[in-house]
Amino acid sequence: PVLVVDFGAQYAQLIARRVREANVYSEVVPHTMPVAEMLAKDPAAVVLSGGPSSVYEEGAPTLDAALLEAGVPVFGICYGFQSMVKALGGTVAHTGLREYGATMASVSDTSSTLFNGQTADQSVWMSHGDSVSEAPAGMRVTASTPGAPVAAFEDDERKLYGVQWHPEVIHSTFGQRVLENFLLRGAGLEPTWTASNVVEDLVGAIREQVGDAHVLCALSGGVDSSVAAALVQKAVGDQLTCVFVDHGLLRAGEAEQVEQEFVAATGVDLVVVDAREQFLTALAGVSDPEEKRKIIGREFIRVFEQAARDVVGSADAEGHPVEFLVQGTLYPDVVESGGGTGAANIKSHHNVGGLPEDLQFKLVEPLRTLFKDEVRQVGLELGVPEGIVWRQPFPGPGLGIRIVGDVTAERLEILRAADQIAREELTAAGLDRDIWQCPVVLLADVRSVGVQGDGRTYGHPIVLRPVSSEDAMTADWTRLPYDVLARISGRITNEVREVNRVVLDVTSKPPGTIEWE
Ligand code: XMP
């Protein structure tokens, strides 16, 4: 792999993704990992990330010079660049010239390894207080900026490279090109990390892990569980049984999408449990959000556990035990829980977290090396329906936490109808990939006066909550075009009886969460 050494930057995962966008496999490792351990991973190249510190600060992360002497191509970014300078005997100084944001860099050699094929003047994204004033011996300086006389250097002999700016952010015009030049020209790597190769590798790994055993998967209809199931299906076919719990809190068409389209496209063996009544009964009269979440989580586990027992009892005609459970864990979760390799780190996913002890499964986590966008590519490669591959995030508790008030069959029907209209119009306007998600919320305990037809109405408001986000940790409300809002509002108030008002949530996160409950 290409190792991305994390110096505490918010950018390390982004760098790893950019490396993969160049079709080269990458892994994030902490800067605290000893060099011997990094080298044991047989890295094809190393990228040193940025970081918040100043290299001369007490306690600042240091770069072990041994990493630069191992014959592995190295590319330093921002703090990583400065740490190379420090390790190799150049000078990093407080020049007093800080640069934050877009800056013009001046490249002195557009035929160099990093800058081949680019323009001499290019916009780059900077975020630094210290600057390199003197390059280490043997380094050729190939770019400068107003605040950084040494803004890039290259040494083709030792295969050491670096830039002061952040090539991984899109504001650096040639950022991806610089990174690709390092990987493909500098390090001489082949761009072989493609969706079809990935599928082949993962399928092989699943076969090896699972052997003859039987595998169980809880299918939610979301991207991750669907792609994970499709991969396992491709790997071991009949040895997989998927369980889909229809809790009645899904949006219009979603259960059918899983039960029909997904099954037709992938051929998985699917057990559908219709638990709609059970959930409605359990939720009757409950309006407290946390209480609702607890009930939905608890009922889910009950239903899934029973289904799992049935499958375990009957799944495999040849007498193979049900040994494995599929989890849709993604690479960011793996990085964040600190474990690049080694034993599976079981996240307490509400779907399966509460399985009883006598149902002990080993985990199959076919997506644990992948980022979300790669999961989508793999899904497309496997023929998973596009409606599932491009699905926006949808909470496990579903529409249950989008009805403010208690949940009834009638209220679910109202919300489902309104939600369907909003989704249709957003899709028709081509906005699906511009918004992160758009919860549609029914204020079931609120009524307001309206006039519809010739009469006075006393109906419920529907809230539209379109948000833009990178990772759902923070979000901003999306500035949807007025004409799209007008169409949604017009259709909902005309087509959904009981709704006489549509309002727009214009709150960012924080302070508001994305969901209302
Ligand atoms: P909040 O409302 O906390 O939501 O800003 C952040 C993201 O998480 C989703 N969400 C959930 N997903 N189970 C899930 O699988 C849940 O209980 C849950 N609650 C919120 C939400 O849709 C948003 O994408």
Automatic annotation (TrEMBL):
The active site is at residues 78, 166, 168. It holds the Pfam family GATase. One of its GO terms (molecular function) is ATP binding. Gene3D superfamilies: 3.30.300.10, 3.40.50.880, HUPs. Signal peptide: none annotated. Pathway: Purine metabolism; GMP biosynthesis; GMP from XMP (L-Gln route): step 1/1. It catalyses: XMP + L-glutamine + ATP + H2O = GMP + L-glutamate + AMP + diphosphate + 2 H(+). Its EC number is 6.3.5.2. Residues 193-391 form the GMPS ATP-PPase domain. ATP binds at residues 220-226. Keywords: ATP-binding, Glutamine amidotransferase, GMP biosynthesis, Ligase, Nucleotide-binding, Purine biosynthesis. NCBIfam families: guaA_Cterm, guaA_Nterm, PRK00074.1. Homodimer. PANTHER family: GMP SYNTHASE [GLUTAMINE-HYDROLYZING] (PTHR11922:SF2), GMP SYNTHASE-RELATED (PTHR11922). Catalyzes the synthesis of GMP from XMP. This is GMP synthase [glutamine-hydrolyzing]. It comes from Oryzihumus leptocrescens.
